[in-house]
Amino acid sequence: xxxxxxxxxxxxxIGLLFAAIGALLAVYGALNPTEAQRHGLNLxxxxxxxxxxxxxxxxxxxxxxxxxQP
Length: 70
Hints:
Layout: H1 11-31, E1 37-38, E2 41-42, H2 43-68
Helix pairs in contact: 1-2
């Protein structure tokens, strides 16, 4: 392998996957608030937001690491 071949940062695809699924779940939870209500919490909305933030953090870390390479 030469030095010019780009390396795959696994955070890109996993982060995009978590962000996309999290966004879909959060939107579904926002549009159907009574569907998954448990103890006054909208589980779809809450866990969708958590998954989206986790995915966004992975994407941000991959983007930041890619900028530092020469």
